Amino acid sequence: GARALGPARSGGPGGVAGIRGDPRRREVRALTLGFLSLGANAAPLDVLSAAAEAGFGAVGLRVSGRNPGDPWPQPNAEGDGLERIRARAEALSSRISSISGYYMSEKTSLSHLLANVEAARRVGAPLISQGCFEPDPSRVAELLRDYARAADDAGVRIALEFMPMSSLKTIADAQRVIADSGARNVGLLIDSLHLARSGAGGADVRALDARCIHLTQLCDAPAVRAAETTLFDEAMSGRMYVGDGGLDLKGLVEALSPDAEIELETPVIADATLPGGERARRAAEKAMAFFVSHFG
Questions:
Q1: How many CA atoms lie within 13 A of 252 on its CB side?
Q2: How far is CA 235 from the centre of its chain?
Q3: Where would I find the H helices in the chain?
């Protein structure tokens, strides 16, 4: 089965949430810090340190470049790099919620996706966050079938992310390739920005079987994307701290099960030069204000 690092927590990621009142209220230790909050190329050990400083109970780590051959900070899959990352997480009592590795694309083959599985196994992560830029849906389904089978053998699930600028643009696109693959350990990754820009919202999430939502990433942004900004540029440099923008994040959180895995993905460009621990603390403080305001 899947392995989780750190001390046992009752009730999954939300097990220490809802101490009083609304069960959807979260303490910082019931949230996951996503690597992107510290920048697109945030090194795993830096993310672990920042998360621990800010009081997060879990992290989402990127352990390789997005495409084969892309450089990635050490330690990585080379040598005993992933074992070092795992040991550091254990020392900090930090749970590794998920890892990100190679995208599914025309540049990747099944062997690259199997490397993602091996990385998850070595680092002790129960989930792979998976982006998809392969334009051929039949190839996606075929790759996903074999990828998911290998992941299942390792006790790992896959969270497939839909993004309007990727080949899986909507919830329905992701659901279709999952169904075509026949994989039972593949679910959805719901990113609040991509959800909004795909034209969907909390009502669409509420209509889903909660068991198919493997990970939710929260950030804020203006209610409407600026006309001069591309979807890709907004996703990389237009995200805001939770509560600072105009997305219906309350509606999204209300649509999730109270124990859903929630990761903060808030790479605020204005704070890009701050130390990682400070960026993580700001993300945590904004998230706490949001949860107290809406679910306190």
A1: 27
A2: 13
A3: 44-54, 81-91, 110-123, 137-153, 171-181, 192-197, 202-206, 231-237, 249-255, 276-295
Asked if omega into 75 is within 30° of 0 (cis), the reply is yes
Query: What number is the average pLDDT over the span 20-37?
Result: 93
- Least reliable range by pLDDT among 15-24, 250-259, 262-271, 280-289: 15-24
Let me know if 39 is exposed, middle or buried by CB neighbors in 10 A (0-12, 13-18, 19+).
middle
| Helix pair angle (171-181, 137-153), 10° resolution | 70
CB atoms within 10 A of CB 68: 15
**Tokens 């990747």 sit on residue:** 108
In the predicted structure, residue 6 carries a pLDDT above the cut 60: no
Which of 143, 96, 150 is closest to 123 using CA atoms?
Answer: 96
Task: State phi, psi for 234 to the nearest 5 degrees.
Answer: -65, -40
Residue 154 CA to residue 132 CA, distance in Å, equals: 21
Joined tokens for residue 46:
């830096």
When pLDDT is cut at 50, 70 and 90, the band that residue 1 belongs to is very low
Average of per-residue pLDDT across 214-223? 98
Q: What is the pLDDT of residue 20?
A: 59
User: Buried b vs exposed e over 276-292: b needs ≥16 C-beta within 10 Å?
Assistant: bbebbbbbbebbbebbe
Token pair in block for residue 189 = 């990754």
> Using CA atoms, how far apart are residues 100 and 201, in angstroms rounded to an integer?
25
CA distance 8 to 101: 26
Tens digits of residue pLDDT in 38-80: 999 999 999 999 999 999 999 999 999 999 999 999 999 999 9
